[in-house]
């Protein structure tokens, strides 16, 4: 099932504003991966920056929180939970035993609104200093998380806190015997026509809750549209409108960090942010589901950017004023053509130069927070017709990545049963220098490879390092055993 299509003109949108938005992105070097805009429930603009494409799911980072929140909303509607339930009441007695009094007063509402009481995000401190065994299958992260005692009384302070939403995921499982995805499947995914919702999980198989969900652009837009329509979908009531009214309203203390941007100080609801216009589901590196009630519009954006605010600023200044402004058929046609041609800047746009049939390189010293981990010790390059095969040495494994010269080539990295889809493009920038980009295509992220014959060394660096960790397999969501 897909959302109906229309044209900007027919729905009262001036396509020129969207063209202006694309111009600003290009001029400022802001990297989007997809853009979809719907008005009156009809898609009027959609585009993907190749090699990203419509059918690809994309890691949406903290948009996952809004999905987890919605799962809680369904269970509240059905009477399985209430927002004032203390979190420990849904945990196993052994997990709840001996908790600090501040933990005993933390409710589901505190978790939804990031008012658990921690001074700072407690996720990284909880796991700091723990060895790799913490990732072993069967390891329970709940005791690790609960060891981080909230310093403040619940409800008295706001701290954006991954622990809060992870606890919601665990409560959902405890209350239903199934995870977030299984709760959402009959209530949200199937009605919206979303066939699957890949989600990164903890070693016990629980969805992380706060991150890890993967959505296609249309699935993200459909979710934003459901929020816009306050739980109504194709004439069917899925979730009470009052839930969305509460979820989108600012709750309690505000975000007051000195570095906070203009769209982060307006309040936080039940895992949704208020915005200068409407409200939003918001994920790191520029993942957005914008809900604009006054304009009867919804927007889905995926990206890889630094500050999320730069995307919002550009959108508010250009595309937003065009919603409700008369346009023209001519601008509509220009927009269609522009969206059809979207693509990321490609490495070696002029094509690959002649180079050796085969070459090997050792990894140069690993520096900076964007480098792949030291486990990647070297690489080799060999010709494959007019293309190349890049071979990454990772411990005792050799990971082959086909690299297209004239187009992106697709493959899957496999390690210890985990699968990471990638696409790659590049070649010999000169007779002694090989360059390529490897896009982890179901995420915002890509790796830049640079290798030189003169030194015999190579660098492997992320454009922006993933939050889960520096190894591409930290982004894995599917294992071979899952089919």
Fold and architecture overview:
The chain is of the alpha+beta class. The protein folds into two domains: 332 residues, 3-Layer(aba) Sandwich (Beta-lactamase), CATH 3.40.710; 125 residues. It is built from 13 helices and 20 strands. The strands form four sheets. Strands 11, 12, 13, 14, 15, 16, 17, 18, 19 and 20 form a ten-stranded mixed beta sheet that branches. Strand 17 and strand 18 form a beta hairpin. It starts with 14 loop residues before the first helix and ends with a strand.
Relevant terms:
483 residues, alpha+beta, Beta-lactamase, ten-stranded mixed β-sheet, six-stranded antiparallel β-sheet, 13 helices, 20 strands, globular, Beta-lactamase family protein
Spell out the blueprint of helices and strands:
Layout: H1 15-28, E1 32-39, E2 42-48, E3 58-59, H2 63-77, H3 93-96, H4 101-104, H5 108-112, H6 123-127, H7 142-146, H8 162-176, H9 180-192, E4 214-215, H10 217-228, E5 232-233, E6 236-237, H11 241-247, E7 273-274, E8 279-283, E9 287-292, E10 297-303, H12 309-317, H13 329-340, E11 358-363, E12 376-384, E13 387-394, E14 397-403, E15 409-415, E16 418-430, E17 433-440, E18 446-452, E19 457-462, E20 478-479
Helix pairs in contact: 1-12, 1-13, 2-8, 2-9
